[in-house]
Amino acid sequence: MIFIRFGKITFSLALTGAIIVSVSSAAGAQSRKAPQPQNETQRAAGQRIAPPSSLKCSRDHLTSFMGRVTAYQRTRTRIFIRVRTDEETTENFTLKFTRNDDPTRLFLLRAEEFKQSDLKLIEVSTGRLRKPMRAIVWVCDDGSNPVIDWRPPEK
User: Are the C-beta atoms of residues 134 and 68 closer than 8 Å to each other?
Assistant: First the structure.
């Protein structure tokens, strides 16, 4: 008789505990905010962003590095850029080209085609970058030059 009574009490306690856990979980789920859309500067670590359609490299061979530009040098045959990524790594990139090439063909401006006149939006003078400056550097694993998608502050 005592075992039956003990079994009923144990069952009642287990059932009460399960109901409490279930109710508190449901209340917590209702109070959570729905995820908000994020812009490119607020994206969560590890979240992928869509590449611009103008890139020739397929997505499975493409990597992006988004962050604050900490160094920039432009000469007649080379562009060097250092980016402190949003994932807290520092990445260096060198774009090489001939004197006859137009280096702006390796640039985008907010995912759109870059025009020669857009240089004034990223440089204060030849080879000197405006600050603060952000960029997304798109790198294809085929060894081709990276493409820099400049993200100057919105005015």
Answer: yes
3-state secondary structure of 71: strand
One CATH from 2.40.50.100, 2.60.40.1180, 3.90.1150.10, 2.60.120.560 for 59-151: 2.40.50.100
DSSP per-residue string spanning 32-68: SPPPPP--TTSPPTT---PPPTT--S-GGGEEEEEEE
**Contact predicate 83/68, CB 8 Å:** yes
Q: What is the tens place of the pLDDT at every residue in 81-124? A: 999 999 999 999 999 999 999 989 999 999 999 999 999 999 99
